[in-house]
């Protein structure tokens, strides 16, 4: 019996999935270290969801298509990199992708073949897209999963970084995820690389670059 | 179990509470073995890359062979529940400096419950120190109870903190049901030589394929010390046979060095 695609979605969204996510903060630690007030975290999350979140979601959708059609993902990775100007953020995404891919090797060995033409550390959205293709996850679920995973990661990190009510964190995740609902249909239906949203977040990227150079940090990025 | 590849080193974990001397123990191992073995080190720091910098500055290995990974404020998770970051770092180190003989992985200082997953390390050392209190060894826990080696560190401090090292070692031996315990001080050459011999013996059994990674597990044997029945009469022996077949060839000497204070 194959697990339901819905179950796989839940699995991939679970922060306890052993793929290295616990060492990431989705840009929250870089922002707080740079002096962003904690009160701004909800706005930070909404901004991240509609910028890097949409870039990643669109990339994942295309990666899913490429895996289903057995075509190369290299142009998709280039399109993603062009929309992710911060090296620190690209490296963090590649760490996450490599961790996911390593886990996939045990659970979905065929996922690797979809990413064969890429480096050993493909970015997170490409690996998510390849897993979605092999596990039967639809494009809209993939978009929501890509954003949710990033937001949940941010809030889990926030609770380690700042005192706060964990329930408030849950509310923040839901608020940020629902803020991109109007874009879900459009992003999940893209079919070529030039349609990947190109919204970047220069301040957050600068914070991430600075964070990568500090020696006092809890999280990778 | 860790995947075996042609360049696969022995992966040796070093865990234990904060401040018990994990970094120092790794520096000691490197110092005593760097001439004959190809070594790499991964540190799991909590707030900084302090441990990696300490080891680099100790000059015991090329700085490039010492890497730090972030643990997301959760050192326990990084060595047990989600070992991805450490596995990737170990694989990278083994690839970049192939072939390596031993990769030492230092956990972030945590509490008594933190032990390495057998999917990450082949063997693990749990480190306590006399300054943490002579009763800690009696408290048990998976690391104290079932790590491949329990080190009671900083024995040179025992007179200053009022700890009876032979008693602490005896308590540990009981809690461990006879598994190896080493009373260590980096200023005591005999104890350092024993540590070195232990690492070499584990490496040897790893290479022969006879070493099987143990999992200390989340549950531990629990031992209640009965002060009505003092064990001050504990007699250590250098020929003690330990009921752990995987380490039958390891030197399982249980030493006390209370008589070698410098």
TrEMBL record, chain A:
GO molecular function: nickel cation binding
Species the sequence originates in: Agromyces albus
PANTHER family, per the entry: UREASE ACCESSORY PROTEIN F
Gene3D superfamilies named in the record: Urease accessory protein UreF (1.10.4190.10)
Swiss-Prot/TrEMBL keywords: Chaperone, Nickel insertion
InterPro entries: UreF, UreF_sf
Protein name, as recorded: Urease accessory protein
Signal sequence region: none
TrEMBL record, chain B:
Annotated Gene Ontology cellular component terms: cytoplasm
Chain segments carrying region Disordered: 208-262
Keywords associated with the record: Chaperone, Cytoplasm, GTP-binding, Nickel insertion, Nucleotide-binding
Subcellular location: Cytoplasm
Record SUPFAM superfamilies: P-loop containing nucleoside triphosphate hydrolases
GO biological process, one term: urea catabolic process
Alphabetized InterPro entries for the sequence: CobW/HypB/UreG_nucleotide-bd (IPR003495), P-loop_NTPase (IPR027417), UreG (IPR004400)
Extent of Basic and acidic residues compositional bias: 236-248
Family note: Belongs to the SIMIBI class G3E GTPase family. UreG subfamily.
Function description: Facilitates the functional incorporation of the urease nickel metallocenter. This process requires GTP hydrolysis, probably effectuated by UreG.
Protein name according to UniProt: Urease accessory protein UreG
UniProt organism field: Agromyces albus
């Amino acid at each position: 019996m194959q697990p339901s695609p819905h179950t796989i979605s839940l699995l991939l969204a679970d922060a306890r999935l052993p793929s290295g996510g616990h060492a990431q903060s989705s840009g929250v630690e870089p922002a707080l270290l740079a002096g962003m007030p904690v009160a701004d975290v909800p706005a930070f999350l909404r901004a991240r969801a509609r910028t890097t979140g949409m870039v990643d979601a669109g990339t994942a959708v295309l990666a899913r298509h490429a895996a289903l059609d057995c075509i190369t993902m290299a142009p998709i990775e280039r399109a993603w990199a062009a929309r992710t100007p911060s090296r620190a953020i690209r490296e963090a995404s590649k760490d996450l992708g490599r961790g996911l891919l390593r886990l996939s090797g045990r659970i979905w060995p065929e996922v690797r073949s979809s990413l064969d033409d890429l480096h050993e550390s493909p970015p997170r959205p490409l690996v998510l897209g390849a897993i979605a293709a092999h596990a039967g996850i639809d494009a809209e679920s993939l978009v929501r999963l890509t954003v949710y995973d990033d937001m949940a990661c941010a809030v889990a990190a926030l609770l380690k970084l700042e005192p706060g009510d964990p329930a408030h964190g849950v509310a923040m995740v839901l608020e940020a995820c629902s803020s991109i609902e109007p874009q879900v249909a459009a992003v999940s239906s893209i079919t070529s690389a030039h349609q990947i949203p190109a919204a970047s977040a220069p301040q957050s990227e600068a914070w991430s670059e600075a964070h990568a150079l500090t020696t006092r940090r809890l999280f990778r990025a | 179990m860790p995947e075996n590849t042609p360049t696969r080193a022995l992966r040796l974990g070093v865990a234990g509470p904060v401040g018990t001397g994990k970094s120092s123990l790794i520096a000691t191992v490197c110092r005593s073995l760097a001439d004959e073995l190809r070594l790499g080190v991964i540190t799991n720091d909590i707030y900084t890359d302090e441990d990696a910098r300490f080891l680099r500055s100790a000059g015991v290995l090329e700085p490039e062979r010492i890497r730090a990974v972030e643990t997301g404020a959760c050192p326990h998770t990084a060595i047990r529940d989600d070992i991805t970051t450490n596995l990737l770092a170990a694989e990278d180190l083994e690839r970049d400096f192939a072939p390596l003989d031993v990769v030492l992985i230092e956990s972030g200082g945590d509490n008594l419950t933190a032990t390495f997953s057998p999917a990450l390390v082949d063997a693990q050392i749990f480190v306590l120190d006399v300054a943490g209190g002579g009763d800690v060894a009696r408290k048990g826990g998976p690391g104290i109870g079932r790590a491949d080696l329990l080190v009671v560190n900083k024995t040179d401090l025992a007179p200053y903190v009022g700890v009876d090292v032979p008693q602490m070692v005896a308590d540990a031996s009981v809690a461990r049901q006879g598994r190896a315990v080493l009373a260590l001080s980096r200023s005591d050459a005999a104890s350092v030589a024993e540590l070195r011999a232990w690492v070499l013996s584990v490496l040897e059994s790893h290479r022969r394929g006879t070493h099987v990674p143990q999992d200390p597990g989340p549950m531990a044997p629990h031992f209640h010390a009965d002060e009505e029945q003092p064990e001050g009469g504990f007699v250590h022996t250098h020929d003690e046979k330990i009921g752990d077949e995987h380490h039958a060839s390891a030197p399982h000497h249980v030493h006390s060095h209370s008589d070698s204070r410098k």
